[in-house]
Each structure stands twice: as C-alpha cells, then as structure tokens.
Design goal:
The protein is mostly helical and 91 residues long. Helix content is 93%, strand content 0%. 3% of the residues are buried.
C-alpha cells in the first residue's frame, strides 16, 4: 500500500513538472522577445544621447521619439500577452 501511495505522489509530481515545462518554455520565449525589444529601445536611447552630445538636436529628438514608440509598443504587447494568459487560465 505504501508503494502505491509513493508511486501516485511521484506520478503527480512528474505530471506537474511536465506542465510547468510547457509553461516555462512559453514564458521564456516571451521573455526573450521582451528583452530584445528593450535592448533595441536602449540602443535607440544611447544613439539619441550621442546625437545630443554631438549637437544634433533633430536626430536626438527623432531617436528619442522612436525609442519612446518602441517602449510603448513593447508595453502594449506585454499587456496583450498578459491578457491572453489571463483568458487561457480564466483569471
């Protein structure tokens, strides 16, 4: 009887781990996309800082605007993913 209980518990843990792996893979992919967008935004901000240091206000403003737009798009995408995850879980 004890063996059956241990087997049942081990099986439950294994199935839970398999479910977590699938969720973890999706989360990892989402994190990668988010990090890439943030890196691009950071790069644009650095380019804007360089343009400002060189006295090129027009380029600095354009790069800042592009970085801001990228940040807002990333936030909107993250919100959409969060809402999609909430819809799937029913929360």
């Amino acid at each position: 009887m004890k063996f059956n209980h241990v087997t049942l518990v081990a099986s439950a843990v294994a199935f839970a781990a398999l479910g977590a792996c699938a969720e973890s893979e999706q989360e990892a992919q989402e994190d990668l996309v988010e990090q890439q967008a943030e890196s691009q935004e950071d790069l644009l901000e650095e380019q804007a800082d360089l343009a400002e240091a060189q006295g090129d206000e027009a380029a600095e403003e354009a790069l800042d605007a592009e970085a801001d737009a990228m940040g807002e798009a990333g936030d909107a995408a993250e919100d959409a993913v969060d809402e999609g995850a909430m819809d799937e879980t029913g929360m």
